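User: I'm designing a mutation panel for cathepsin L and want to avoid disrupting the core. Could you give me a predicted structure to guide residue selection? Please restate the sequence first so the numbering is unambiguous.

Assistant: Good idea. Sequence first, for numbering, then the predicted structure tokens:
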Amino acid sequence: MKSVVFLLIALVVASNQTLNYEDVLAAEFEFFKMDYEKSYENSYEEKLRSQIFKRNKETIDEHNARYARGEETYMMGINQFSDMLAEEFQEMMLSNVNTSEFASSIDFIYAPHNIDIPHEIDWRAKGAVTAVKNQGECRSCWAFSATGALEGQHFIRTKQLIPLSEQNLMDCSARYQNYGCRGGWPSHALKYVEDNRGLDNDQAYPYEGHVGECRFRRSSIGATVSRVAQVRRDENALAQVVAEKGPVSVAVDARRLQHYRSGVFNDPICGDPVNHAMLAVGYGHDQRGGDFWLLKNSWGRWGEEGYMRLARNHGNMCQVASYAILPIV
């Protein structure tokens, strides 16, 4: 971005014009299009996207000014969603799941022992977390959260980190009340794996971003599930399970996450309804933002290299501990 902005400044200076905020926004939009390989159907749409981008950038700049004054605990930034209205972002990336369906695939409630746990933990450092994935323009977060939890549990048991197939879940678990790109529940996906006696690996059954014909092959199984457990609904229980057992599938309200860049996300408006599944891979403490959950997302280049930190011990922020799922392998 700097090279584009500097070029604009040079051109403005050469023509004896005054550089203003609109000029900078225009330059940043050009860089945004190149960086995220954005193309639009016609000049009308490009103008519309430019205006949306500029309004979003103003929101980002205003928020980050508050961050600089110590009034916020996280920063916003430009990402692949910066040319979208909030309503468009929610329609494309967030699910409209029915919470009454959540428990139908649960085998039992896991109530962890009240044990001493470390002050921080990061399962990435222990080798239990695969690389960040990208669900694309498909509301398939439920599949990525399910595979992430199972990948971690399989690694902890076998010491083999095997990327698992979200597409297998997309194509084959519809009868478990999962709806492909229209949303679903990680618990249902893992129940399918339990009943199916396995899930294919990602190399044999790669992600396509849309529902197709079920092509599960028993010869390509990467992991199995024996039972599906719900973690008791409180943050202390979730912390104990993450510390003792490994990565856990969680569901959150992600409506306010469109512009998240870094830091500990803390927003009192974040709550019901849950609409996005992620993976809790650890927790810790930040000097500025306080206690946090470390969450792996499935939006590719977003946040902190595909991750975010969410405020912990702040009244179950974004409902992070309300729908936590642990596959037993």
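For picking mutation sites, this is relevant: The first strand starts at residue 74 and ends at 76. The chain has two domains: 2-72, 90-328.
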